Amino acid sequence: MRFPRPPPSERAFSIGIPAMIWQVLFFYIPLLFIIVSSVVKVSETGAIKGFTFTMVAHFFTPTYLKVIFSSILLALSNVVICFCIAYPLAYFMAFTGKRFKNTLLFLLLIPFWTNFLLHVYAWFYVLENQGFLNNMLIHLGLIKQPLVLLNSIFSIMIMMVYYYLPFMVLPIYSSLERFNANLIEASLDLGATWFQTFRRIILPLTMRGVRAGFFLVYIPSFGEFAIPELMGGDKQMFVGNVVSQYILAEGTGSLGAAFTVVSCAILLATAIFFYWLMDRYVYVKVR
Amino acid sequence: MLKFGKVGNLIFISLTYLFLWVPILVLFVFSFNTEGYPSPWSGFTWRWYEELIDSIYLWKAFGNSLIVALCSTLISCLMGVFLIFYAAQGGKEGARIGKYLGLFYGNMVIPETVLAVSLLGFFSLLSIPLGLATLVVAHTVLGLGFVVPIVYARFLELDYRLTEASLVLGATPTQTFFKVTLPLLMPSLITSALLVFIISFDDFILTYFCAGSSVQTLSLYILSMIRSGVSPVVNALSAVLLFISSLLVMIFFHLKTRSRIF
């Protein structure tokens, strides 16, 4: 038996609307604004003079495409490394080491919930010439001279993985937690190898978490500018660095906007492509 | 079940957690060092903690971060709850707002840097002076992207029979919302509030662009300290912040409702 629902009141509408107004006003309109300002020619007095694609075209040159490409590479390698660490860890927390899952999650969340600049600073201590890692390696007799670890792609990568790892672990863990472990047993009993079970049963059924992790890591690490700047010693240029330099410098605002739009469009295109790739190759068609 | 066996597991897990915790422990130990970065261990002292307590600018930045985080958490949670209230009027499926909810997932597809840059351009176009208010606005946008999806996902999981029972027994929709629906949503609401608070408090990218030159938050203060030859006061500060975040994580664990996004 179904009861008629009360008609939604107009008051309810007016109460629900502020969130949407806020979201549109401070999220979508600014995005629209930056897209528009990347193709609009503005005179010195601030009047709009017409449309131009020269600014956008300016960034389709090898120098800038290389910056965008290296950002994609950075973000992608970050995703892959995070995935390779996160999946076994999440698997351990969800099944094998279920007893310790609260402790492990607790220890994972504490660094995650402290200011990330402090992590950057902490890694300075570990990676510098006289730092913890070099001292340890010399002590163990593995190396004679301290290695130069800071201000390199290595230190950028370490910091990226360190910061983004929980973003990958948590969604994968939550999808594994809801995963029915009997399926694994059934698959193994029916003669599948461990790898087949993983490839055909576990991975496809936890794809929701993997996909969420992919977006949570790939998108922000593409735009990252603080980590490359602080850990890379300004040697490597990524999209975030170029954008922040253009935007914060005097008079190059619209160039910065144009570069933001160009790189963001390329980012979304690659994200959709990888998304499609995951969908295409993870699900195994049953014949 | 896993092929690597017990030893392999143990090695893998301990290496991962060493990776996560060694930097923090090193930082913590060196907060008691008499000499600053980058000199080796030379003796025990409480000096940096005393300096931490005495540094006025740092506490001012800390206060600013706290104000921004509290305001944006409050605003985004209030607006989020109101939005869900509106959804609750539409019946089980929240039919009337379901299609608009996609609006709030945009935050996940656009990098924070891009949002920050756009907001900066937007504010300067309208010639709104940058400061605490613009920071609160920006962080609220960030917060809505967490509150709405998390609370709405929980809302969809609720047993609609409870709401229906309440309506049939004569409660008005408003009463039903505040006495039945909202209490059931409370755990997920608190979880997302905690998340928004932490994210706003630790946020760097939005703050870096939208704070302007007059306001300093904790993140910006730490950045300036890292750039201008660091003093171990930062170590002492990180020990304090670690303590605070462990407390918050403990609260999070007591709620025992992990959000659906994570």
How are the SSEs placed, and which strands pair?
The complex is a heterodimer of chains A (287) and B (262).
Chain A: H1 10-39, E1 40-42, E2 48-51, H2 54-58, H3 62-96, H4 101-112, H5 116-127, H6 132-139, H7 153-177, H8 182-189, H9 194-205, H10 207-223, H11 226-231, H12 239-248, H13 253-282
Antiparallel strand pairs in A: 1-2
Helix pairs in contact in A: 1-13, 3-7, 3-10, 5-7, 7-10, 8-9, 10-13, 12-13
Chain B: H1 5-30, H2 47-54, H3 56-89, H4 95-98, H5 106-109, H6 112-125, H7 132-157, H8 160-168, H9 173-202, H10 205-210, H11 218-227, H12 233-255
Helix pairs in contact in B: 2-12, 3-7, 3-9, 3-11, 7-9, 8-9, 9-12
Structure description:
The complex is a heterodimer of chains A (287) and B (262). With 287 residues, chain A is an all-alpha fold. Chain A folds into two domains: 1-52, no CATH class; 60-282, MetI-like (MetI-like fold). Helix content of chain A is 73%, strand content 2%. Chain A contains 13 helices and two strands. In chain A, strands 1-2 form a two-stranded antiparallel sheet. In chain A, strand 1 (40-42) and strand 2 form a beta hairpin. In chain A, helix 1 (10-39) packs across helix 13 (253-282), helix 5 (116-127) crosses helix 7 and helix 10 (207-223) runs antiparallel to helix 13 (253-282). The longest helix of chain A is centred in the N-terminal third of the chain and has 35 residues, at 62-96. The mean pLDDT of chain A is 85. Chain B is an all-alpha fold and 262 residues long. Chain B has one domain (56-255): Orthogonal Bundle (MetI-like fold), CATH 1.10.3720.10. In chain B, 74% of the residues lie in helices and 0% in strands. Chain B is built from twelve helices and no strands. Chain B has helices at residues 5-30, 47-54, 56-89, 95-98, 106-109, 112-125, 132-157, 160-168, 173-202, 205-210, 218-227, 233-255. The model of chain B is unreliable at 258-262 (pLDDT under 50). Classes of the chains: A mainly alpha (287), B mainly alpha (262).
